[in-house]
Amino acid sequence: MFWIYVICAVVIAYFLGSLPTGYLVGRARGIDIRKEGSGNIGATNALRVLGPTLGILVLLIDLLKGMAACYAAIWIPRLWGGSGSELGAHRELILMLVGGLGAVLGHSFTCWLGFKGGKGVATTGGVFLAVALKPALICLAIFVILVALTRYVSLASITAAICLPGLVYYFHRDIFLTALTLLVALLVIYRHRSNIQRLLKGTELKIGDHKKSK
């Protein structure tokens, strides 16, 4: 029965995460964000193209998608007719993690836009604020400091993703939690592969830089 919960958690979380926030907010303003700035639908490009107010709105919604997916996952047994108490803390954590992974996959490969989506940083942040608060807060601090020093959001995102699995293991000493964290971190880094190439070439956009419409 537990594996049915896991499958349901992944499916529900995927569709929750697949909500293309940046694209929808841009469309509401008559802008196709995929054709502006970097062409990404995530919060960074939304901030660049749509301005700080709407950019922050996209960021918050993408973050909340990750958190909501985790908490929705642990409600599945209750919706199925159980109390949820039979899961135990470890299985509840597993449900939250697979729900979070589903949300990140949905955000990164949304079915509504031809399986092309954002980089998954904000949604990943929401997931770990729900399941591993201290590591998430430290990674947030690393992210903010690096953005302030370099103005490269991509570099800050990649560095935070690299640090996250080690911090999760340090605070929680849970191999399964660390392994899933590593999987999510690798996905985030993979989604930044083009940014890594641009960073190495010195052509990556900084905060405040603008790129002509495609």
Summary?
The chain is an all-alpha fold.
Overall spatial form: globular
Distance between the termini: 49 Å
In DSSP terms (H or I, runs of 4 or more residues), the helix count works out at: 11
Radius of gyration: 17 Å
**Helical percent range?**
over 70%
Average pLDDT number: 92
How many DSSP-defined strands? 0
Protein described:
By secondary structure, the protein is mostly helical. The mean pLDDT is 92. The protein has helices at residues 2-17, 21-28, 43-50, 52-73, 76-80, 88-108, 121-131, 133-150, 153-172, 175-191, 193-201. Helices cover 72% and strands 0% of the residues. The longest helix is centred in the first third of the chain and has 22 residues, at 52-73. The chain has eleven helices and no strands. The relative contact order is 0.13. It has one domain (2-201).
List the helices and strands and how they pair.
Elements: H1 2-17, H2 21-28, H3 43-50, H4 52-73, H5 76-80, H6 88-108, H7 121-131, H8 133-150, H9 153-172, H10 175-191, H11 193-201
Helix pairs in contact: 1-4, 1-6, 3-4, 4-6, 4-7, 6-7, 6-10, 7-8, 8-9, 9-10
